[in-house]
TrEMBL record:
Organism: Methylobacterium frigidaeris
GO MF, any single term: phosphatase activity
Stored Pfam families: Hydrolase_6, Hydrolase_like
Name the record gives this protein: TIGR01459 family HAD-type hydrolase
Ranges that cross the membrane: none
InterPro entries the UniProt entry points to: HAD-like_sf (IPR036412), HAD-SF_hydro_IIA (IPR006357), HAD-SF_hydro_IIA_hyp3 (IPR006356), HAD_sf (IPR023214)
Gene3D superfamilies linked to this entry: HAD superfamily/HAD-like
Coiled-coil portions: none
NCBIfam families (UniProt xref): HAD-SF-IIA, HAD-SF-IIA-hyp4
PANTHER family referenced in this protein's UniProt entry, alphabetically: 4-NITROPHENYLPHOSPHATASE-RELATED (PTHR19288), OS08G0542600 PROTEIN (PTHR19288:SF90)
A cellular component annotation (GO) from this entry: cytoplasm
Amino acid sequence: MAEMIRASHPGEVAILDGIADVASGFDLILCDVWGVLHDGVHAHRGASEALTRFRALPGARPRRVVLVSNAPRPGSAVLAQLDGFGVPRTAYDTIVTSGDLTRRLMAERADAAMHHLGPDRDLPIFDGLDLTRGGPDEASHVVVTGLLDDETETAADYRGVLEPWAARGVTLICANPDLVVERGERLIPCAGAIAALYEEMGGPVVYAGKPHVPVYEAALTTAEALDGGAPLPRDRVLAVGDAIRTDIAGARAFGIASLLVARGIHAEELGVAAGAPLGDIAHWLEAQAKHPDAVIDLLRW
C-alpha cells in the first residue's frame, strides 16, 4: 500500500479532504461509477475533475483510471450513460463492468439452456453471444441482472420464482452483486439482493463483479495493456468506491489500497445524507467487516 495514504496512527483510517496529497503515490485508480461519479440522477463534477487531474500527473508511466462498475451491462453501455450525465471522457481511460464478466461466464456455458431475469434495459448483455436460450422451466442457468420493477419491488417478491429453481439446482449467474444502489435520494435494490436470497434458499450462485477477485484481475490486465503490458505493482493501485461490502472488501481481497466515498450508499448511516459534514466515524468503521485505508466525503482533488 502506498504510505502516503496512511493515517497518523497505526490502526486509524485517514480522513481526506481531497486526493491531491496522495495521488502521486499511485499509477492506477480503479474507480467505482454509481455513487462516486454520479448518483443515478446527477453527475458529481468534483469527482470527474479529480480523476482528470490525476491522469494529467507526470510520472515514470502514464497515470491510468479504469472505471470498475457492477452495472449488468457491457462497458460500452456504461460509457453512453456517462456521456448522458456529462461525465467527461478525460476522467477515465476505459471501463470494465460486471456485465463484461457475465458475458464471459455465459460464453463459457454456451450450450447450457440460459434464461434471463431482469428488465429489458439490460438485454444488451446478450448482444452478439451465440447462446442456448431457454424458458424458466427448462433453463439450467438463469442470468439475473436486476428486478423487473426496482422502484416498487424487493427481492422477497421473487421467492416464488426462485423456489423451483433452487429445488432443481439451477445455477444463478448474478450480473450485479450490489445489494442496493443510489438513485437520487433513494436506495434501489439490485440483482445482488435476489442472489443473496437465492443462496439463503440453498441455490447455487456464480457472481460477476465486485467484491470478487476476477473483476479486479480483468481491470488490472486492461490497465497494463494500455501501456504495452508493463506490469503494475499492486501497491501503486488505489480502489475508490462507496460500498464497504463490494468496493472495500474487493480491494482488500485483491491486496490494494482503498478509499471509501462516504456520501454514497452509506451516507445515511454516517449522518451525511443531508449534506452534513463528515464527523467522527470511528465507531461505525469498527463495526464494519472490512476497513478502507482512507475515507473522503465526496471524491475531489
